[in-house]
Specification:
Largest sheet: 5 strands, mixed, barrel
Strand content: 15-25%
Number of helices: 7
Radius of gyration: 19 Å
Shape: globular
Length: 291
């Protein structure tokens, strides 16, 4: 797998006297802050502030490096541990896209190169044992196409959401802990948690049980192993900006067997740590290999 060269396909960035990264906090006028991100090689994205803080602390202990907290405000959390950045992205593609645009611009202004970005978190499995870590091969829509769709100025934009296969395979291969089941497969990126995932337990439900099961079985037959809400946005933006990207999520439920997560909290906590342990193995191996 070749190192990526970070690019910004935006001709207007060069016209800015100062680029304000409004949601993350830094601006290009903060030269001392921007330059601290020059050596970043890994960006780990996850849903919540607390989870990304825990990741940063674990990476700090692994590398023997102090965690730097660049969080500015209460929207998103941003931490740096040597060559690793952890940042929260909230829930869904709309929230994640804000962070992606700004973290990519931050690394561009810092002149970082060879960056690998990995979204990690939780998901609902389809025919997959709960607690399994799924490394995404392709982020697909609900028609099982590796395409990210969104509306811009009244037009529907379609972008590729294929992910780097070599990176996915390397993450799976780096996992040596037999206590953590891990597999590669396609991930469906849904627009919300309830209706777009065919759940029957939302405030509104206008589908039948039979329609839900037909869809989920069709998804499984198409190679979809899990469902979450950010992967296609991550894949498409990273593809455009020359960043190798991956998505690593643990499954908390088998959707073929139900919609609600009823697993005891202590077990869920153990499962939620699994993507972090997988990434620690992967990053340690990569960093040792680069020395």
């Amino acid at each position: 797998m070749t190192a990526s060269t970070l690019i910004l396909p935006n001709p207007f960035i060069g016209e800015l006297k100062e680029d304000v990264l409004f949601h993350l906090g830094p601006t290009t006028a903060d030269h001392d802050v921007i330059t601290k991100f020059k050596g970043v090689k890994f960006v780990i994205m996850g849903g919540t502030h607390s989870r990304m803080q825990v990741y940063a602390e674990k990476f700090g202990a692994m590398l023997g490096i102090k965690v730097e907290d660049f969080t500015n405000g209460d929207r998103y959390a941003l931490f740096k541990v040597g060559p690793i950045v952890t940042v929260s992205h909230g829930v869904g593609t709309a929230s994640a896209s804000v962070v992606l645009h700004e973290i990519i611009k931050l690394l561009y202004h810092a002149k970082s190169s060879g960056v690998t970005l990995i979204r990690c978190g939780t998901s609902g499995g389809i025919g997959v044992e709960p607690g399994t870590v799924v490394v995404t091969r392709n982020a697909v829509n609900d028609r099982f196409e590796p395409i990210y769709e969104f509306s811009r100025l009244g037009k529907t934009i379609r972008r590729s959401s294929k992910l780097n296969q070599d990176l996915a395979d390397s993450i799976v291969a780096s996992q040596k802990n037999d206590d953590i089941p891990i597999m590669a497969g396609d991930t469906m990126c849904a627009e919300d948690f309830y209706e777009c995932q065919g759940r029957l337990d939302g405030a509104v439900c206008e589908i039948t049980k039979e329609e839900k099961m037909r869809f989920l079985k069709k998804a499984s037959e198409a190679g979809v192993c899990n469902i979450e809400m950010e992967s296609s946005c991550v894949a498409s933006l990273c593809n455009l900006c020359g960043i190798n990207a991956a998505v690593v999520c643990v499954t908390l439920i088998d959707r073929l067997k139900g919609d609600q997560v009823t697993t005891p909290r202590d077990v869920l906590h153990q499962w939620e740590e699994r993507p972090m342990l997988v990434l620690m193995n992967f990053i340690k191996k990569r960093l040792n290999g680069s020395r």
